[in-house]
Structure formats: C-alpha cells, structure tokens
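Recall from the previous chapter that SMILES is a line notation for molecules. Here it describes magnesium ion.
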Amino acid sequence: MTKRFGAITALDDVSLMVSRGELMTLLGPSGCGKTTLLNLVAGFLIPDSGEIAIAGRRMTELPAYRREIGIMFQNYALFPHMTVAANVGYGLKMRRIAKAEIAHRVGEALALVKLAGLEDRKPRQLSGGQQQRVALARALVIRPQVLLLDEPFSALDRNLRASMQVELKEIQRKLGVTTIFVTHDQSEALSLSDRIAVMADGRIRQLDTPDEIYRHPLDRFVASFIGDANVLRARLERIDGAVATVALGAARVAVPARTLQGAAVGNPIDLFVRPEGLRVADNEGAAAVHGLVAAQIYQGGHIDLYVEVPQALSGRVLLRVPSHEAASLRPPGTRIGIALAGDAAVAFRAE
Ligand SMILES: Nc1ncnc2c1ncn2[C@@H]1O[C@H](COP(=O)(O)OP(=O)(O)OP(=O)(O)O)[C@@H](O)[C@H]1O
Ligand SMILES: [Mg+2]
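With both inputs in hand, we obtain:
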C-alpha cells in the first residue's frame, strides 16, 4: 500500500504478510509510518493505492466496524463514567449481543487479563497497569480476527511494562490471535515478536525474526537502530562467495559478504560488532585492537566497560564484562587488548 498526506508519503509501496496466529511487530523511529499502517489495516484510513485482505477476504473498502478487529491504542482512553464491565462489554453491546452472553464473555475476558472481581470499579479506581488490562480485555472480547496494538505500554513504568509484555505474550499465544504490535522500543520488539518489520521513511527495511534482525542486519540503519553496536574501521581483505574476510588490526574476521556489495578488496569498511561480540584479550596474541579503559559502569549482573580505541568510529567501544571478573583490576587509564568473541559481526561499506 501507499498512503500520502499532501506532500508527505507516509507509506511508500509497502507489502506485508502476517501469518495466522503470528505476533508481528512494526518497529521504527517516530514518523516512519507505523501508526499509518495500523490505521489502514483497521480501516480508519483508505490507501492511495494497494489492497488489504484478511484471511483471503478483501477489506480495502470495508468500514472499520465490519472488519472484526480488536484495537488498543496508547491513548485509546476508557470511558471514565462506565464500570470496568461496561467498558469491556461495550463492543458487544454495539453488536447487539444478548445480555447474558455479554456478561459471560466479559467475565471470560477479565479473567484472561487477571481482573476478575473488579467488574464494578470505575477506571479512575484502577492503577495504570490495570487500566491497560481493561483496554486489552475490551479489544479481545469481540474475538477479533486481528489484534492491533499501537504502543500500548509506553505510558507504563519500566517494571510494569515488562510484566505486561510477558502477559500479553502469554495471552496472545493462548488465544492464537493474529497480532500487529507497534513500538519504537527495540528491546520490547526483540522480546515479544515472532517477526519484526523494521521501518524507516515509510518503507520496510528488513522483515525477519528478532534473532536474524539482531545478528544479521541487512543495512547500517537496521544495525544501528536495533541493539548496541560498536563500529570499527577495518579493511576488506578477501571475498570468497558468501563470506568476506575483514582485517581489523592483527585479527581476521569472517562476515557475510552480502552486505558488502560494491566494496572492493583493500577498501575501508565498517565492522559492526555487538558488545557481547567483544572481550578483553587474555594475551597479546589474541588482541585485535588496543585501547585505554575510559569508564566502567556497574550494572548488577555485568559491567559496561568503555574503552577508547582509535579504530572505533565514535572513538570508543562498549564491552560487557561479567561483574565477578574483578573489575578493580582495570581502572580508567589501563591499557587493554580487545579480541573478537564469536562470529556475530557484520560489515558495510565505509561512509
Ligand atoms: N493525518 C495526517 N495528516 C498529515 N500528515 C500525517 C497524518 N498522519 C500522519 N502524518 C505524517 O505521516 C508520517 C507517518 O506518521 P505515523 O503517525 O504513521 O508515524 P509513526 O511511525 O506512528 O510515528 P510515532 O512513533 O511518532 O507514533 C509522519 O510524517 C506524519 O507527520
Ligand atoms: Mg505512531
């Protein structure tokens, strides 16, 4: 589909297929077109070109209320004057379902989101997390073909958010409801999704499983947007079919060749390595590059070690070191060698 607002192309010829029962996440920076895509699926917007179908049935011109879609938006407020039960049952009442059936299904939906017993409360008598659960129950009670969630937890604090994510995942699995989830929080996307569509400027840049996106980003944008990445200036030494060899100091690193299209042997290239892809070298021979420890930040289970390295594009790299590895042995200013751990690096042409 393509969708324009005046001179702005909010969605530029985007194609997306979501499997039955799948949790698909749209992830991307503000303004990249996530909400627009969701609104097109919901029927709140009509595309300038393109089609949308659910279970093989064409939906493009069908009004929103006939699409059997459950929706939960960040600011999709509950009706403040209605009880929890009336809020959840509202969609069923609009569909003229019998009273006894409504009561039964509202009870079921509230049990699902662990709010049984709170039927008669008003929204203002609930915590933020409980209000989000009511909104989720309201979206699910109509037994939607598709569930659309637009940043549903962004107003919640970190702990509550994490527990709601786990619960949403469990509920979604249990019901097997096809879900499109929108977020610009990459850790939320990585932990919840079956697949992630990474978007930028109205287009999908990569559509893949969280693990593929994290370990094998297809371009610099995806590599930088998802997870922490250390970028090191290196040199392309050889290409053998699908594998390229990159020289970083004394080390030789194997990376996928597909992201190095157009780069010639001898060219400078940028090596992207996750923090867990680097380690402190135990001996001189193992070190690829050297640097001076700039800071070590205690994080509980591990320590973030920042090291000034001349080959790093930002001037420094980040390593994660287990806390039990005596941190005091590397005070700021210590010179250390850094080695590559594992094979998770990717490389792109230098900019
Ligand atoms: N009704 C509208 N009229 C004009 N421009 C719009 C309209 N709705 C969205 N846009 C523009 O379309 C682009 C995509 O907007 P959209 O709301 O889909 O972004 P988003 O990815 O959901 O961003 P965010 O993460 O900030 O919610 C933006 O440039 C936005 O300004
Ligand atoms: Mg949005």
